[in-house]
Amino acid sequence: MKEIKVSVPDGKKAEWQDINGVQTLVLVDEKDERPVMERIKTFEDACKELNRLAEEGNEDIAILLADYESNADNIKTEATLAYMKLCIIVAALNEGWVPTFEKGEYRWFPWYYLYTKEEVDAMDEDEKRRVVGRANYNAYPYGGCVYASADYDSSGSNTDHGARLAFRDRERAEYAGRQFAELYVRYYYNAELENL
User: Fold this and answer.
1) Which residue has the higher pLDDT, 68 or 112?
2) For a FRET experiment, which of 8, 81, 115, 148 has its CA 20 to 30 Å from that of 137?
3) pTM score, two decimals?
4) Alpha-carbon distances of 159 from 53, 149, 156, 173, rounded to whole Å
5) Structural domain that includes position 93
6) Is the residue at 30 inside a domain?
């Protein structure tokens, strides 16, 4: 058997495939074996992950991407665009998992604390950047993903969760809440973080 050396671009690998009954050496994308939370740091990373799943035949993912691609340029509100991006990010981080709504199933969501104005004023700049919203009497961010309310200077509070944007485990929810906090702010408040 003869041996040849071929340069292969980064992110690709050479693989023998049967094409019309002929063994052919082709270049294919090299699968990234890192854990999902190391692979997905940006919205673009999530799109890349879902494109791969769509190419492998996942029709639900293909429809999700097509909906985003056909509508993103026409969306007029930050909240709607952020919601669409979060749907893609959540799908990518969940790696195919979707809620089944069966007894005993757990679903996880990012969780944000409510702070008083005094608490925010006492924070350093880095801590303030992690605060997503403020209110002096009450706050009702009906987000579709998470609904949290705080009344009477946060002395009473409750939280209800919906099914949208659910994660398969706590670690993914915590990661998304930190990594994509800006998008959650746009989704919940239809605003940029600096404007809150």
Assistant:
1) 68
2) 81
3) 0.68
4) 34, 6, 11, 16
5) 36-195
6) no
